[in-house]
Amino acid sequence: MLPLFFLALAQAVTPELRQHVEAGLRAKAAGDLDGAAREFQRVAELAPELAAAHVNLGSVYFQQKDYARATGPLRRALQLNADLPGAQQMLGTALLAQGAAVEAIPHLERAQAADLLGIALLEAGRTRDAVDKLEAALLQRPEDPDLTYYLSHAHGRLSKDLFERLRAQPDGATRVQQMLGEAAAGAGQREQAEKHFRAALAARADLRGVHLAIGQLYLAGGDYARAEPEFRAEARMAPMSAMAAYKLGLTLMNLGKAAEAITELQRAEQLQPGMPETHLALGKALAATGDLSGAEGALQKVVQAEPASALAEAAHLQLSQIYRKLGRTADADREIRALQELRRGRR
Amino acid sequence: MIRALSNSRSGCSSSLPLRYLLWLCAAVVTAQSLSLFRSVTLPFVHRHSPTTQKYLIETMGGGVALLDYDGDGRLDIFLVNGGKLDDPVRLPAYFRRAEAAYANRLYRQQPDGTFVDVTARAGLWGGPNIYGMGVAAGDVDNDGDADLYVTGYGGTVLYRNNGNGTFTATTEAAVEGWSVSAAFFDYDNDGRLDLFVARYLDWDLARNILCGTPFHAYCRPDKFNGVANVLFHNEGGGRFRDVSRESGVGGVIGKGMGVAVSDYDGDGFAEVFVANDGMEQYLFHNERNGRFVERALEAGVALSDDARSYAGMGAAFGDYDNDGRPDLVVTNLALEKFALYRNEGEGRFSYTSLSSGLAGLTSRHSGWGVGLHDFDNDGSKDIFAAQSHVLDNVERIHSGLRYLEPPALYRGVAGKFAPVDLGLPAVAGRGAAFGDINNDGKMDAVVSVLGGAPMVLLNRSARPGVTLRLVGRRANRDGVGAIVRAGAQTVYATGAGSYLSAGDIRVHLSGAPRTVEITWPGGRRQTEQLAPGPIVTVEEKE
User: In chain A, where does the domain assigned CATH 1.25.40.10 lie?
Assistant: First the structure.
């Protein structure tokens, strides 16, 4: 598009100018970018007020990834004609590549390049604006790893900014401890995480989510006896929390308290119906107490909800055992085949 | 079960001022173990030769066997050593098994309960150039004395007992590659002990890889292919024939570790369970025609209740709920929970780790050798496990886990399990063999320790028990595979099970049962009145 525009203008100029223009275009088409740059440089000297001359020179340097040299001609081109197609984006990109994010932003805004603009805003410290732009760009290209990286980076920085703000607040210490605990838990530093969580609870005993987080540390570490009181505390504090009820039920199951687990898992199901994890745990607990019919129903819901998941594998195994216990051999065999198929697929 | 120490034994002295006396006594009693077991030391140190290369074999050995090799009625102890590994190994590897530090050892029990090293005298010194792993013990020629089969990386060896206190090494039943646990059992009830050998991975020193960043750790088994197990049929006349292919055992690729044997479906024919590492477990069902079919999944013992595979290590059958059927326990790594499968009858098991309470007790522990026996003679079987993580640097990976762990006893009470503090030190437990070492009717244990001295643990339970020696006539000489019932107790006669190890082939019963019913291999039943005393012999009636 750019060369055509250039040629249209070139028809009104001298034969010498026309000769350099055509030589430049031929060199560019042949991949001889150094030759093209020489020709377009000559054109710019012969016609310094011709915006197209500068933009073509700039585009050649841009193509060579020589962003420093591209910047001058592109800037000059836009001074002469601010509406030159592609020039805003090239200049914005060239500036961004050189670390001049603030300067790049207006050009990228005019070019409406949400992805590059998001990155520029992030680098310029305008994190919240960056998140908006990057999320918009990611909607268009959801599989783009670079965009995903930058968005993740932006969220991380936003979180850090908020954390710093929290730390600066006179009453923020408790939440700071909670956040530090969450960060340590995420990094696998279990002892450190618990220390922060306990500090948060010492300051505010009614802080929701903290007992849940401590319970989760114990549950993941296989310490069910210590996990139970934490989940119970969370469930007392947040009686409408399906997660607290579910985790408590799961812990009770691991402690061999199937009947108590059923109560909590049924409560979790009422609070947040349709969760396959809850159905699986409930199915196992019901089977353990001999309620095979109830267990069958719960486990079938798992298979219906997530037929190809690891949860479904567990449900098929449980169902096969229930059917064998009931003497329904054909059904048991069918469930085993389904389990084998899923396991084969996963390999 | 717990017996307080007297002041004189704990070292308190009445010559001290009272305030010091109280403090000192309290300290000593606290420091000493008020345990079910009394420890006996053996001058053996297992050598595994840890290297920076993290060769997998370093972390897997070694086994222990309890056998009465000289027929004096007292159990002797055979310990399998590892071998020397250079860092890195220069191939072909030379494990220096004839050097004192790396030799297997046989300790003969004296009448006073002490042990004497008779390795050289018994002809067991040195042996082939294999890095030692496990051991199986059994009377393969029915001549009345126990023979030994030693597994390892690089080969195996069958030591035939000459009946005069010495053994002769043979190349019978030789297995290539890396063999781990082995079990003698009579799968076709022909009166001769056959041999099952579990093999671990298709791995060798030349193909070792370094795993883990930023520091190295032993590789997970999924980095290597599995291999098939091996089954030998005892042909008589001292010959074994490899029947892996025709029996179907050789057609199943696994990553075998522990082997347990029992007749789980009560049809009179023995089955084999193989604990596999990092994949589904295997249960080889005896089809009663010389063939085995792998049926773990349909029997319900292949996976956890979440349909997840786990790192199966040791395995043992035993009737923990006294319903007359053999249940199954499988040890594994921390955060996996030891797997307990209750035998529901009709060839079906259910996963009862959670409902029995075992999950909560074992979720942070890693188990290897394991036994399901009644250690406190209260009529319910308990679970004893040698413990330790497989990774010697696991603390760097997971701060909540520990490499060294004390052996554990989980006491069975009405189908549930409760912890017992044995007061034992944390070690790298691996193999474990169980038997009545001092013939007092109580189940003792020997734990082999990777890179350390074994723990010989003598049971001092206050309750009585009986150790029953079976003598087969039509059945194999030691009655291996017989089922003994006394009241609610049911015990399958076998020395197989656990990990890398061979236990007492005699049958242990708790209490003082007057009558036992014995079902010999092949189904012949015999009822016997037992003479009083902790050791009783019952011969099969012709």
Answer: 4-112, 208-273, 275-347
Phi then psi for B19, rounded to 5 degrees? -65, -35
Side-chain-facing half-sphere of A151: CA atoms under 13 Å: 19
Tokens for A60, please give them. 């050649």
Cα separations (Å) of B3 from A45, A129, A311, B35?
Answer: 105, 72, 48, 7
Beta-bridge partners for B115: B109
State ipTM: 0.87
With the CA atoms of A136, A137, A138 and A140 taken in that order, what torsion angle do they form, in degrees rounded to the nearest 10?
Answer: 100
Residue in chain A nearest B296 by alpha carbon? A336
In CATH terms, the fold of domain A208-273 is 1.25.40
What contacts B539, CB < 8 A, 6 or more positions away? B470, B471, B473
**With 50 as the cut, is the pLDDT of residue B28 above it?**
no
Contacts of B354 in chain A (CB under 8 A): 253-256, 258, 284, 288
Q: Which helix (H) or strand (E) holds B247?
A: helix B244-247
Query: Starting at the edge strand that comes first in sequence, how are the strands of the sheet with B367-373 ordered?
Result: B367-373, B382-387, B408-413, B416-420
Beta-sheet strand order (sheet of B76-79): B64-67, B76-79, B105-109, B115-117
State how beta strands B489-492 and B483-486 pair: antiparallel
> What tokens does B255 get?
């990553």
Alpha carbons A239 and B299: distance in angstroms, whole number: 41
Q: Cα dihedral sign for A177, A179, A181, A183?
A: negative
Alpha carbon dihedral B108, B110, B114, B118, in 10-degree steps, equals -30
Per-residue pLDDT reduced to its tens digit, B456-480: 999 999 999 999 999 999 999 999 9
Surface-to-core class of residue A169, CB atoms within 10 Å of its CB (0-12 exposed, 13-18 middle, 19+ buried): exposed
Q: Which residues of A touch B (CB under 8 A)?
A: 188-191, 221-225, 253-256, 258, 284, 288, 310, 313-314, 316-318, 320-321, 324-325, 332-333, 336, 339-340, 343
Task: Give the mean pLDDT of A176-194.
Answer: 93
> In terms of residues, how long is chain A?
347
**Of B540, B382, B304, B271, which Cα lies nearest the Cα of B36?**
B382
CA-CA distances (angstroms) from residue B483 to B62, B65, B318, B492?
29, 22, 11, 5
Residues in Cβ contact with B12 at an 8 Å cutoff, skipping those fewer than 6 apart: B21, B24, B25, B28
Check residue B8 and give its pLDDT.
33
- Read off the pLDDT of each residue in B342-348 and give the average, rounded to a whole number: 95
Q: So what's the pLDDT on residue B30?
A: 31
Which are the contacts of B442, defined by CB distance < 8 A and separation ≥ 6?
A: B375, B377, B436, B459, B460, B461, B465, B534
Instruction: For residue B17, say if its preceding peptide bond is cis, omega within 30 degrees of 0.
Output: no
Q: What is the pLDDT of residue A84?
A: 86
On whether the A275-347 domain is CATH 2.30.40.10, my answer is no
Q: Which of B136, B148, B249 is nearest to B185 (CA)?
A: B136
Residue-wise pLDDT for B220-249, tens only, equals 999 999 999 999 999 999 899 999 999 999
- Residues whose CB is less than 8 angstroms from the CB of residue A338 and which lie 6 or more positions away in sequence, other chains included: A303, A312, A316
DSSP B113: S
User: Using alpha carbons only, how large is chain A's radius of gyration in Å?
Assistant: 32
From the list A58, A2, A8, A4, the residue with the least C-alpha distance to A33 is A58
Residue B270's contacts (CB-CB under 8 Å, 6 or more residues apart) are B185, B186, B187, B261, B262, B263, B286, B481, B521
According to CATH, the superfamily of the domain at A4-112 is Tetratricopeptide repeat domain (1.25.40.10)
Please give the interface size between A and B, counted as residue pairs whose CB atoms are below 8 Å apart.
Answer: 78
Nearest CA distance, B116 vs chain A (angstrom): 43
The CB density around residue A184, as the number of other CB atoms within 10 Å, is 19
Name the burial class of residue B415, with classes exposed (0-12), middle (13-18) and buried (19+) by CB atoms within 10 angstroms of its CB: middle
A321/A342 Cα distance (integer angstroms): 17
